[in-house]
Amino acid sequence: MDLNRNIIEILGYLQRIGGMETRDSLKIDESSACVVSGKDILVRVRDDSISLFDRYDLQDKIVLADAPAENTLCMNEVKSFLDGISSSIVRLNHVGISYSCKNYRAETRTYAGMLHSKFKLLQEESDSENSKWYFIGDLTNWRSPIFELILNKPNHHSLDRWVPHFQIDVDTTLDFGELERRLKSDFGTGFDWSLEVPEVGIVLGMKILGMINGTKICLGTGTANKNTEYHRENLLKEYC
Question: Inter-axis angle of helices 75-85 and 176-187, to 10 degrees?
Fold first, then answer.
């Protein structure tokens, strides 16, 4: 699928331009891109699937059967932006998916049944009553990438712009203003959403890179204000 091939290309590009932590968290071959946590494959993207732990296919969660055939993603813009911040990228923080579901509890129970080894189902307090933020990860090493799961109330009009999507999130050493200027230079517009923490500042900006057959590809860019170690150890709580 065009969606998957574009995701693989972006992850492959990150692997080529990123520093050691980024390179170590990605394994790229001719047919797939893998996000790895320690020795485990966390997420694998192939041309026809997006799987968790290389076993559970999540493709249908974010692909719309009746979506119009269109592709608004410009890879040249994406690569130009990543090139411009490459020396400031610290690590791949996470990849994730966002989609609508009717029953949060039933959905998270399904994911809990997929866990193995050191991986836990975690939750962070959301900034919206219309969505829940969950993560799957191994918190024994806070530098390892994790998987995000954003569950949204169905048909909430304010979320139509974002749902469904696949996201890639990186940590950087740049401040929000510098990232915004670089985005505007490459895309013509800045971030589509940002997360501000009181007494800390803006810790994350999110950009919709484009839409492919109704599914968005988003890039989250952590700012210099973001403290990933603190986030993993204090803000992510094991979900029961």
Answer: 150
Q: Is the pTM of this model over 0.85?
A: yes
The CATH class that applies to domain 61-238 reads alpha beta
pLDDT of residue 211: 96
Please tell me whether the peptide bond between 164 and the residue prior to it is cis, using omega within 30 degrees of 0: yes
Would you state the pLDDT for residue 127? 81
Among candidates 203, 6, 13, 215, which has minimal Cα distance to 97? Answer: 215
Q: From residue 64, how far is each of 47, 75, 111 by CA, in Å?
A: 16, 22, 21
Q: The tokens 């119009």 sit on which residue? A: 68
| Residue listed under structure tokens 């915004």 | 180
Spatial CA neighbour of 134 closest among 164, 157, 109, 156: 109
Report d(CA 20, CA 163) in Å as an integer: 32
pLDDT average, residue stretch 128-132: 88
Check pLDDT > 90 for residue 76. Answer: yes
